[in-house]
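Protein modeling request. Please complete all fields; requests missing the sequence field cannot be processed.
Requester role: graduate student
Desired output: 3D structure, token encoding
Chains: 1
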Amino acid sequence: MVCVHAISKELITLSPEGTVVINCKIPVLMGSVTCDEYGVIRSSSFSSGMNVGTGPITGLAPTGFYDTVFTGTFDSAGSMLIDGATNYFFKSHGASLVGGASKVIQEDLTP
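Delivered output (111 residues):
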């Protein structure tokens, strides 16, 4: 699923068929986003956090959050893969990790 300038919660459902979210803004009134796993999320904004079942999709590269504003909590048993810009927004907006989640900052994705 590709979410471009989403304004309804129905557009936010992540599925195995599509794992790319670009330029997606999820306002506070929509609540947190819930999904089993995530793929590539770019230039987006999560105003109320995210609940992820298992963490990033394996076998998909590069996986993670890139240039994304994050507010609220990231709740997962897995890792939150982020770039430096997302980490800046995560920290400056007072976001937090819960549920055993860990942050992995990845800058150079070239093998």
